[in-house]
## 1
Amino acid sequence: MLNKVPEVTMAFWVVKILATTVGETFADYLSDTLGLGLSLTSLIMAALLAVALVFQFRARKYIPFFYWLAVVLISVVGTLVSDNLVDNLGVPLWVTTVAFSALLAATFIAWFRSEQTLSIHSIFSTRRETFYWLTILFTFALGTSAGDLLAEQLNIGYLLSALLFLGCIGLVALARFAFKLGAVAAFWIAYVLTRPLGASTGDLLSQARKDGGLGLGTTVTSVVFLGIILVVVGFLSVVEYRRRPTFAPD
């Protein structure tokens, strides 16, 4: 099995942030705009995610379409997990934020104790890939809760929340390149922070003006961002195909 995760390039971060935004807006689109409700939407998206992960786990190497489809779907499911706890079960946002932080930390600890590394450049076994996708799920759920906690419950607003998380990512980049923060630690801190950044951005674009958003709606925001993701992933697929080794005939 070859490494199942793409190289961490600018394209990686662009699609990751776009996927986190779609996770926020598409979940709201299905649940609220289409009127499916949180429970039915959660069941549908969880089933689609399960199918996508089957294809991802069965692949023997990184395939852009399978990988990014799983990321988009797990972004939506992570959002729905947080929303179900808060909206359907009445769990406070600060509790879900702390709980998902603890679950994420526990996953990192279990992953490291089992594999002695948290590097995404070594995802070449089923066990490591399982740890990887479980980590991704908790980062999305945590990001949703943390973003909503700051923007809505603490009344910071979507724009200021997005700028706050963007500034934190900038500090991580500074720590990495100026103060030699380890690559693995820098990656995962930035990865966690991009989720609330995407959630706040999605809400900023889609929510009504009276609620502090720009009023584009979940339909327009989801379609635009999904379209951009398809274009970028299509480009990445072409690049990956051209990188395959060619063998001259004997």
## 2
Amino acid sequence: MSKAREQAVLFTTLFLFWILLNGTVSQDVLLVGAIAAFVIALMFRGGLGVLSELRLTPRALVTSVFYVFYFLKELVKSNLKLASIVLLPALPLNPGIVKVRTKLKSPMGRLLLTNSITLTPGTLTVDLVGEWIYVHWVTVESDDVEAATASIVAGFERYLEVMYG
């Protein structure tokens, strides 16, 4: 994709988000949104990483939609699990930092993976070193790398691998 096209895609994406967030198409809102989107697009001339590394294949685009639904499902599950832990009088916590492995090669794929882990209640990405991710886990179920990877990372990775490689 050419630089001019990347800039146009970035500007358009930002401008559309502005309109969606404001919920109105009045002239003053459109003008401020256009100026803000233009300035941000100038600041990020290299493009918007999430869009520039995304594989633009039909399979990757469909997988992106499924990823959002998977993330939302995991978010609800984790919230319910953490709420039940907090509400139990015994507070069955087993906190610790576990080491998990990612097979993602794309920096943006890894970024989205670590952010997804952090945004899911009960887990927090502490560090990313090469293929290793260190995660604080409120209820450590296993300190085995393979088991922890399967529990924390594998679901997200299945989608991100198709989207980013």
